[in-house]
Amino acid sequence: MKKFLAVILSLVMALSLVACGGGSKTSAPTTSSGEKVIRIGVFEPQTGENGGGGIQEVYGIRYANKVYNTINIGGEDYKVELYEVDNKSDKTEAVNAAQKLIAGKVSVVLGSYGSGVSIAAGEYFKEAKIPAIGCSCTNPQVTNGNEYYFRTCFLDPFQGTVMSSYCKNHGYSKVAVITQLGDDYSEGLGNFFVKACEQNGIEVVAQEKFQTNEQDFKAILTNIKGKEPQFIFAPSSIATAPLILSQARELGIECQIGGGDTWENGTIIDNAHGAAEGMVVTTFYEANPATATGEEAMFLKGNGMGDTATGFSDYLVKVENQPAVIPAVSALGYDAYLAAFKAMQEAQSTNGEDIREALTHLAFTGVTGDISFNADGDANKNAAYVKEVKDGKFEFKEIVKID
Amino acid sequence: MNVTQFFQHSLTGISVGGCYALIAIGYTLVYGILRLINFAHGDIFMVAGYFMIFSFAVLPFPIAILVTLVLTTLLGIGIEKVAYAPLRNAPRMSVMISAIGVSYLLQNLATYLFTAIPQPYPEIPGLKLRIQIGEISTSFVTLITPIITILFVAVLLYLVNKTKIGMAMRAVSRDYEAASLMGIKLNKTISFTFAIGSFLAAVGSILYFTDRSTVFPYSGSLPGLKCFVAAVFGGIGSIPGALVGGFFIGICETIIKAIGLSTFSDAFTFIVLILMLLIKPTGLFGEKNIDKV
């Protein structure tokens, strides 16, 4: 009887393997109804360390896909389909995810949240001649030497420089930096902040580092407290931020604490239980429905159709079951999709090389402002929004411009 | 490093160590009885965090704490019944692999149900109170963590050494076949052990997460590993060993970070594990055990 069972079981397993093999075969880009389809790959972390931020970018992309869902190329209508893969915030998984996208015959790739995974996958997209458009990956290395990688946001050096200018504008003369070891984003921002501070004549009294997934910052914060800085710059992940904030306040550190764009996230305020009050962040986007025009107005107020009828924040609540607050990365995700869409329209082609060519001279006004790409593939931007937490909400503080 | 900083660091280290000790006891108890390293223990700790978040949302806090403790205890017993009990007579390796499976199941289930976005841990009234002693600033929870830890360990030691069920636990850990021949109910005793381990993990989770204010699906994995090291360091199977090991790892980690070597803090923990296994595999307080051939 046992032997019989074993035979049956092994048969089932063998059959399931066959089934798997059949499933992974990539279908030709047409739907069952014969409609022509263009696939856009969504290369984002939906789990792992950056899963929280990655999914917010995906929301923006999904929304854009609902607004712009058909494209006319060479007189034929194509349906634009999203092909989402999860890169799990992990550099090894990112390569697997990239290969899955390439095998899935996507025309363009959008993403990723987190620079490390984008750098890891960049070479693969380049080899496959598929242009990729990053939304919020701010490390210079993402686009550097890779003519197939573009991005809709500003760069790390820029954010570090902006924060340093902010410190200068507010008369801070002693600052401290906390960065995450081995994390391209965190160390990148930190390094450029330190460099800019040296130029601005601001003394960096402490530079502390911590390990990924660290939960106890009291030891390094105690050291920082002894140096009495007026400002602490701690660019790091959403998971880390509330820990640094609340543990700093517990130790009696009263100075202002600032982070990069990742910190602009409502969950930090909830999780820090009041310790987030007064913290500042640099950010890509600030929703302002009163003055919104063009694409931004459409993004905020909707286009009157289906799920996108009443704007993105309603979409977040109704379709994705999220709070109504619009994260900046969602706006960038929307713009990245738009860039891909417009480039395909301009190129009148679904071929990766043609789309890349179109992207290099594309210029349009997206949700986050005017977008065009420079020779490196980076968006041309010269200003960042600084926001401060007041009464448990992010409030626009000032625009810091760099010459 | 001045005197104030020294005391501040010591306080941090002792408090972290207290939490580690509470979790490490869970590893030690289960190992003592089943000779099983319960890899899912760190994740039970994490799930206890989510239990607290959800029960706090609908119940007043004293009841929420109680509900958390009870649910976590039941979870521990349930895991044993479902994933370990059917493998009672299987090779030890199978049970261990089953434990790793449970660990991944809990992590991924939490990611699926609650997403990877860190969830705010509720603030239990009074625990987060800031206390200023001279130059040292700390919170109430940091101060009481080591006290609660030592209190629970004392109760546990009494339970194991002086009560009937404790005697049964010791007997099962010696030789479970002989113990069951003597009329000790094997399954009941093992369930009881898992109940205590999970209960202490829940207590540890309340103290730990109150101080760190967020829970996410992977927040149990690293503390879990470190506490496993603590248990091995103290001598796996020994309750005072787990206590000493927990405090040792917590304090050393804080010192290493304090002198600016954060890079090596995790590496240190695992070097301790390797060294201990090389030099004294039975740990500080572990009993030498000669296997019958």
Task: Please provide a written account of the structure.
The complex is a heterodimer of chains A (403) and B (293). With 403 residues, chain A is an alpha/beta fold. Chain A has 2 domains: 36-154 and 292-372, Response regulator (Rossmann fold); 157-283 and 385-401, 3-Layer(aba) Sandwich (Rossmann fold), CATH 3.40.50.2300. Chain A contains 13 helices and 15 strands. In chain A, helix 2 (51-67) packs across helix 12, helix 3 packs parallel to helix 4 and helix 12 packs across helix 13 (352-360). Chain A is globular. Chain B is mostly helical and 293 residues long. Chain B has a single domain (3-279), classed as ABC transporter involved in vitamin B12 uptake, BtuC (Orthogonal Bundle). Helices cover 73% and strands 4% of the residues of chain B. Chain B has 11 helices and 4 strands. Chain B has helices at 3-34, 41-58, 61-84, 92-114, 140-162, 164-174, 176-181, 186-212, 221-234, 239-258, 265-279; strands at residues 119-120, 130-133, 136-139, 214-215. In chain B, the strands form 2 sheets. Chain B has a two-stranded antiparallel ribbon. In chain B, strands 2-3 form a two-stranded antiparallel ribbon. The radius of gyration of chain B is 19 Å and the shape is globular. Chain B starts with a helix and ends in a 14-residue tail after the last helix. The relative contact order of chain B is 0.20. Chains A and B meet through helix 2, strand 8, helix 7, helix 8 and helix 9 of A and helix 1, strand 1, strand 3, helix 9 and helix 10 of B.
What is the secondary structure topology, with strand pairs?
The complex is a heterodimer of chains A (about 400) and B (about 290).
Chain A: H1 2-24, E1 36-44, H2 51-67, E2 70-73, E3 76-86, H3 91-103, E4 108-110, H4 115-127, E5 132-134, E6 149-151, H5 156-169, E7 174-180, H6 184-200, E8 203-210, H7 218-227, E9 231-233, H8 241-250, E10 256-259, H9 266-271, E11 280-283, H10 294-301, H11 312-318, H12 328-347, H13 352-360, E12 363-366, E13 369-372, E14 383-390, E15 393-401
Parallel strand pairs in A: 1-3, 1-4, 4-5, 5-6, 7-8, 7-9, 9-10, 10-11
Antiparallel strand pairs in A: 2-3, 11-14, 12-13, 14-15
Helix pairs in contact in A: 2-12, 3-4, 5-6, 12-13
Chain B: H1 3-34, H2 41-58, H3 61-84, H4 92-114, E1 119-120, E2 130-133, E3 136-139, H5 140-162, H6 164-174, H7 176-181, H8 186-212, E4 214-215, H9 221-234, H10 239-258, H11 265-279
Antiparallel strand pairs in B: 1-4, 2-3
